[in-house]
Every structure is written in C-alpha cells, then in structure tokens.
Amino acid sequence: MEKTIDSKYIQQHLANERTYLAWIRTALAMVGIGFLIVNIHFSLNDTSQAADQFAQIIGIFSVVLGLIIIVFATYSYLIKKRQINEQTFQPSNRIVWLVSLFTIAISVLFFLYFVVY
C-alpha cells in the first residue's frame, strides 16, 4: 500500500476523531436534556399555559443547540484534519466559547424553569 499524507500523522488524526465524537456525544446530551425537561414537564398534571410554553422553548432551544454543536463539530473536524496535514494547526477557541455560552444560557433556562415552575 502507498503511504498517504494522512498516515504521517496517524495519532493526531485519531485524536481529532475522538474529539469529534466527544462533541457529538455532547450534542446528543443537549438534545436528550431538552427532551427530558419537556417530558418531565408534561408528566406533571398541574401546569399552566406559560409553563407549557417555557418548557417547549427549553426543548426547542436544546435541540437547536445540539444541531449547532454537530454542525460546528463537523466543520472543526474537517478544518483540523487539513491543518494537521499542513502542519498549521491552531486550536479552535471560537467553538469552545460559543458552545460554552449556549450551555450557560440553557442552564440558566433550566434553573429558571425549576425555580419559577
């Protein structure tokens, strides 16, 4: 078999794949948490219309956040793959900050939901 440029940096590419899969797990957890909140909310019998809407907003926001994480993780994976081969790797601070801010926002929504309702 002929060696490819990817085979020069096998460990880095494998680490890149592990990081990608970790982001995918994070995205699935966000979606799952949204479904959990909505499911718990509608399992309760004494809910108001405002509480119903708030729970639905949390559910929609977490699904959208999960999809955003998947898109950015895929984009980041492909960029890092190219950067590894070209030996121009730079860490991706933007995606970390973006996901952190969205995670904080959804955590605040969860907190408000449990405190208010």
UniProtKB/TrEMBL annotation:
Location in or out of the cell: Cell membrane
Keyword match Aminoacyl-tRNA synthetase: no
Transmembrane regions listed in the UniProt entry: 20-42, 54-75, 95-116
GO CC terms, sorted: plasma membrane
Domain DUF202: 12-82
This protein's record includes keyword Phosphoprotein: no
InterPro entries: DUF202 (IPR003807), IM_YidH-like (IPR052053)
Alphabetical UniProt keywords: Cell membrane, Membrane, Transmembrane, Transmembrane helix
Topological category with respect to the lipid bilayer: Multi-pass membrane protein
PANTHER family in the cross-refs: DUF202 DOMAIN-CONTAINING PROTEIN, FGR18P
Protein name: Putative membrane protein
Species this protein is from: Piscibacillus halophilus
